[in-house]
Amino acid sequence: MATFSHTRTGHSHTRRRFLKTAAAAAGAWCAATVVPARVRGATAPSNRINVGLIGCGHQSQRIVPSFLVHTDMQMVAVCDVRRCGVGYYYPDQVLGRETAQRWVHDHYAQQTGSGRYQGCAAYADFRELLAHPDIDAVAIVVPDHWHALIAIAALRAGKDVYCEKPLALTINQGRQMVKAVRRYQRVFQTGAQFRSSPNVRRACELVRSGRLGQIHTVRTWVDPNSFEGPGPGWQPMPVPDGFDYDFWLGPAPDAPYHVERCFHRWRYILDYSNGQTCNFGAHTNDIAQWALGMDGTTPVEFEDNGAEFPPDGSLFTAATRTAFRARYANGIELFCETRSSSATRFEGTAGWLEIDLGGGLRTYPENLSGTVLGPQDVHLPSSNPTREENVRKLIDADHVRNFLDAVKSGQDPIEPVEVGHSTASLCILGNIAQILKRKFTWDPAAERSPDDADVNAMLSRPMRDPWGAEGLEV
Ligand SMILES: NC(=O)c1ccc[n+]([C@@H]2O[C@H](COP(=O)([O-])OP(=O)(O)OC[C@H]3O[C@@H](n4cnc5c(N)ncnc54)[C@H](O)[C@@H]3O)[C@@H](O)[C@H]2O)c1
Is 195 in the pocket of ligand 1 (CB under 6 A)? Predict the structure, then answer.
């Protein structure tokens, strides 16, 4: 039977190290010159929200400015298992915790009379960051195989969480994240920022308001891989200085180091992700779910539709061509495929509408896009009702703003954990159909296939010691 895992060699992460680090964590906070501020509880609501960033790679370049633009928060700590180094999306791009710490210092330095600021701590171990009581919230911007463990640890530590999409690596991990948010009563925002796009919202409102008639088909597209990985016979490489590779692997299987495994490219390897099916699918299928009113549930049938994978022995293992079909209980069919750029298209009895991630909206009939919705139509929640420009960096900042407001109010933000979980589940199940190369039925309420044991065996994955199942316990 197909599985997610492949190569194994001899790295080991001992329980002793885990316990020692956890014990040391409580005293590990570097004295940072921050205003300690709990926004709920005893202190005034006007206090700043202290935020810690976990994961200082490619996407942190969008997340850091999206937080720093808001003056009622303070970024007080960053964390990455990599000190500093090149090799991310662009080969000469230098990222890691020291780079992120410098961005934060430079930002706040501009606001001080002295032009100096040193108040952002940098950690290699997220448990040390989480141990600090003055951190109210964390932004989790690490590869997908780490989302659940870090998010659940943060929730247990009483932090509110902004966690990048796709929510989780497996159905089981996502379900545990949902449980943890509700058990520990924290705020959780899924980092699928197109829910904060004015154009996406408008597209979804048109669909929900029946302007396309009855929807029968949804087509979602995901970008192709941006890189072709090393083929069979690839050779391991030496681990760069300042990079804790064993920690980076964490719960994933042991595997020899290669630069194309770790920095940004991990999204093409099934041990750490579900490929572009889930990477871009977490956006385009999220839009489908929102427009169809399917948040909190998923289709009931999934089928491979000709997905393609790299040759055996390649470093990259995720689909090079996404192609699956799904069917909702109400009969609507969803086709998810690779195309040159990601988009979502709704086809109904009265027309069609296509929205891309840049906010481009095309419709048939053409004048549908100019429709002014009335008070009787469906109006969806908005992160920023005054926002009209569909500019990516403003959308990102609005999505974070929506999170910070939720931290203050204690209410759910625009994309709570259950929504992130159902969208990620759709993508993960599509990927399972692609791997198994067949059709299966799915019970969204039970979160199991009623009759396919192979599918059910793929709903969780073994986790390497000491990052085992106890890290997911709620
Ligand atoms: N919302 C979006 O549009 C969008 C866009 C790109 C990426 N993302 C998401 O952001 C996340 C990160 O992606 P990326 O492109 O930045 O990847 P990346 O590889 O460029 O960066 C990830 C960073 O996390 C660090 N890291 C790994 N494990 C860690 C751990 N246990 N503790 C601390 N740091 C750890 C890595 O060293 C690396 O620096 C992914 O979940 C991805 O899906 C979202």
Answer: no
